[in-house]
Amino acid sequence: MKHKKDVQHGTLALMVLKTLDVLGPLHGYGIARRIEQISGDLLSVNQGTLYPVLLRLEQEGAIASEWGPSENNRRARFYRLTRAGHKLLEAERREWGQTAAIIARFFEVKAKDLA
User: Domains of the chain by range and CATH?
Assistant: First the structure.
């Protein structure tokens, strides 16, 4: 049985942007479920955390939204990546790549390397 972890602070916006980049427009519930699915069900996305991130990304112009019918014919707000969102995603990808490379160096370093 897998133990789900909450999404780490500062990573949810990146996951939202990448999910919309890969899958196209989705409603909030769909975004949350897809993030959980992509993580191999190791992450749990709290709705109370997701919607403020969606609001912030929309206010920043990284995503846009419009109302439409969901799979079960309920009214839902669908979010999509904007041109600015694509640029932000690329900048975030580069930054996370650099951060991951720096952390990897700390796991690889040995005392003799520092002499």
Answer: 5-114 (1.10.10.10)
**For range 21-34, the mean pLDDT:** 96
Is 47:90 a contact under the CB 8 Å cutoff? no
Of 17, 10, 35, nearest in space to 84 by CA: 17
State CA 111 to chain mean position distance: 36
Angle formed at CA 76 by CA 43 and CA 49, multiple of 5 degrees: 35
Task: Tell me what the pLDDT averaged over the chain comes to.
Answer: 91
Closest CA to 78 of 25, 35, 115: 25
- The CA–CA distances, whole Å, from 17 to 39, 48, 58, 66 equal 15, 18, 11, 16
